[in-house]
Amino acid sequence: MKILALDSSGLTASVAVIEDDKLTAEYSVNYKKTHSQTLIPMLDAVRGMTELDLGSIDAIAVAAGPGSFTGLRIGSATVKGLGLVMGCPVIPVPTVDGLAYQMYGTDKLICPIMDARRSQVYTGLYEFRREGMDNPAVYSLAILREQCAVSVEEIARCCNETGREVIFLGDGVPVYREMLRRLMRVPYSFAPAHRRMQSAAAVGVYAQVLYRKGIYESAAAHSPRYLRLSQAEREKLEKEGRV
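^ that's the sequence the OP posted. Answer follows.
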C-alpha cells in the first residue's frame, strides 16, 4: 500500500511517502514560513525527487486535528483537492495520536503536548503494548486518554496519578518545560529534537493501521477535526454575549 502523508497541524510542515514498511521520502520544515508557502512546494519536491506517479497513490493520510486552525485548513484543502483529482480515499489521523506514534515501542507513558494558547495544550495519554512474543516484536498504540484541550496543570496531574515514567513531546515542550519541572512528581523526560515535532512519516505509518481498521473517508467528506472554536468564532460569540 502506498500512502502520501501530510501534516500541517503545527509549527512543522511535513510531507512523506510510505509504501508498505518502507519510508520512501520525508520532507519537513520548521522555519519562519506559513504552510501555504511551503506545503505544495514540498510536495512537488518529494514528487520530483522520487519520480512519484500520483496515480500510484492508494490513499492520502493527513493530520486531521487538533492543531493550528489555519494549518489544519491548509492541510485539509490540499488533501481534498488531491483526493478528488486522484480518486483515492483520505485517512484522517488524529494529530495527537500521530505525535504519540513517534515513540513506537517505548515502555514509558507517552504525553504529547501541543501549545493550544489560552493556557491550554492539546494532549492525550498513550502507551505501546506488545502483541505476542514474536521477534522482532510488534506493538500497538493504546489510547489511555483521548486527545483533548486541557491545562498543563491538569495533564501533569493525570500523569502523576499513573505513577509511571512519562515522555513528553510536541511543540508545547519548549513552552511549558519549566512549568512541567515544577509540576511533575514522577520520573519524566523530553523527546529528542528529531522525535519531538510533527512528522508526516509517523502520520503515514499510523494511517496504515487505521486503514486496516476501516478508518478512512472520501475526499469530499473530509474536514478538519477541531477541539475548540477558533479565536474569531470565540470573539464573535463573546460580542453576542453567548459565552
